[in-house]
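Chapter summary example.
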Amino acid sequence: MLIHALLHAVKHSLKLFPFLFLIYLVLEAVEHSKRVQAWNKKITEGKFAPLIAGGVGLIPECGFSVMCAGLYSKGVIALGTLFTVFLVTSDEGLPILLASPQTAKVVLPVMAIKFVYGVGVGFLINYLFRHRAHVMVEHDEEHEFHEHHCVEQSAFKVYFLNPLLRALKILAFVFVVSFVMELFTDWVGQERLIAFLGQREFLQLFVAPVVGMIPGCGSSIVIATAYQDGILNFAAMVAGLAVNSGIGLLVLFRQNKNLKENLFILLALYGLSVVLGMMLLPFSL
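The structure predicted for these 285 residues follows.
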């Protein structure tokens, strides 16, 4: 059983590596674009901020949710804008789906659904909380995200070393997740596990978002991999990725001193993700 799980994880990881490297090569180039950096600043401006935030959140990188969590904690962006970024962000889930030919076709629908839903929720929350005083404060441009992504680097580091290291890092998560899931399904029995969850489509909508709220890229990898293996249905996968924002929530709880507000955001994100899953469930059966 151990050998079978190990071979499955190695085979699955090696097949994904070329695609992951290519994806992160493109992302690294995008993140160092001065035009993209200018778009980031526009998130803090105007009543159309959720629309801009939704576009930025589509980029599979949790750094944007981290940035917006810090900006919200400093009173720079509105609550609805923060919800938009969190709901649209999919962290490492999209690259994993994109790296497999069988699931690459669902990437665009997932992005479209999360964008429309996240932007709509953002505008609604900003409207409902429009009476709330929102103080604009000066913020330090040298926050962690800016330091990590916007510093001038050599072409070799930008176009080879950084993408390689990021791909290898994610590959390590993929290997561990694939090994554990394969070992678990071999122990339980894949047919039995799929039958159990398949008969409980509604239950998946509540379980996947719980996994998605776990800080770090590992949770989005688990959700995407479970969908690839046929364990989660489409609605549950989207619900799980909708609440996933990398370490954005962790940064929010660390920087925003209002614990009640943080808990409200956490529970609201969970509820909104479950509602999204329920809306998509009839199309997943």
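To summarize the output: Residues 44 and 77 are 5 Å apart (CA to CA).
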